[in-house]
Amino acid sequence: MGKPLFYEILEKPATSCAIGICSAIWFYIQKSNIGYSHVGLSYEAAMEGHYWRIITSAFSHISVIHLVFNMSALWSLGVVEQLGHLGLGVWYYLHYTLVLIVLSGMLVVGMYHILIQKFKLEYFRRVTAVGYSCVVFGWMTILSVKQPSSKLNLFGFLSLPISFAPFESLIFTSIIVPQASFIGHLSGIIVGYAVGWGLIHGMNNYWAVTMLGWTVVVFIFSLKKSGTFDLNFLEIEPVTDPSLPSVRFFAAGNGRSLQMSTLPDAGSDLV
Q1: 134 and 105 in contact (C-beta within 8 Å)?
Q2: What is the pLDDT of residues 205-252, one digit of tens each?
Q3: Which of 42, 104, 182, 223 would staple 187 via disulfide (CB 3.0–4.6 Å)?
Q4: Backbone angles phi and psi of 248, in degrees to 5
Q5: Which of 38, 60, 43, 61 lies closest to 223 in space, CA to CA?
Q6: 156 conformational bin, left if phi > 0, alpha if psi -120 to 50, beta if neither
């Protein structure tokens, strides 16, 4: 008999939070009738400066089947949080989840760019990717490198050897969810191998906070630049101090003259 669910949640806090966030966003999308084109990542949207979609696309699911598949796999992969004695653990999980979200999204756009510009496949200009699959496939790959003897449990009854799970799941997902993004899943696998093989390493609290900070800054300002939401609080108003002299140039004959004038002080006192 397994552990009660409550204890498993306590042993996988980051995984449980991620599942809760994805599920809540899915519920909100369904209730608000939001389409995948509003939150998904596409080449055209990225070229228009909608960089915020790298984040929103990762946490958004339109199909309940896609959500269940991703969350079931993610729950099984939460074992990473329990492997602190192997150099993994909760903080490792948090640090590299951020890496997987950001780099996988950037890699998706990069692959679209190559397919469009190099191979002239205009179809990929409007393909829109959504879902947490990049992160799920990334963690499958990392675990297959770090713990090749582990098993991946899907839906509570399907068990796959973790060493082959990334590519088996890639095929399995393509069959049961034909609309699933092959390039998105492949991007997660590539970044996962880069992390597992140590090509991307050295993430600690400092670099994670720094990366998160820049991600938030880019997210907010790209959101404002795209005009998707009205973020008036980010407007910077020019300020002119009326107590300071103004300087202006004007033409005088063939040369130029400099004139200074003092604006009237609007109710200010000199001390």
Answers
A1: yes
A2: 999 999 999 999 999 999 998 877 665 645 544 444 445 444 444 444
A3: 104
A4: -145, 155
A5: 38
A6: left
* 20-25 contacts, C-beta under 8 A, 24 or more apart: 21/59, 22/59, 22/61, 22/67, 22/70, 22/71, 22/132, 23/67, 23/71, 25/59, 25/60, 25/61
Going from the C-alpha of 163 to that of each of 1, 32, 88, 104, 139, the distances in angstroms are 26, 40, 17, 20, 12
Question: How many Å apart are CA 189 and CA 144, to the nearest integer?
Answer: 11
Residues 6+ apart with CB under 8 A from 239: none
Q: Is the dihedral of CA 160, 148, 16, 170 positive or negative?
A: negative
The tokens describing 71, both together, are: 């969350």
Report the C-alpha gap between 232 and 197 in whole angstroms: 45
Rounded to an integer, what distance in angstroms lies between the CA atom of residue 126 and that of residue 34?
18
Residue 159 is a catalytic residue: no
Left if phi > 0, otherwise alpha if psi is -120 to 50, otherwise beta: which for 253? left
From 60, 185, 187, 222, the catalytic residue: 185
Based on C-alpha coordinates, what's the Rg of the chain?
25
185 catalytically annotated? yes
pLDDT of 182-210, one tens digit each? 899 999 999 999 999 999 999 999 999 99
- CA–CA dist 25, 30 (Å, integer): 9
Q: Which of 42, 76, 104, 133 is catalytic?
A: 133
Model-level pTM? Answer: 0.82
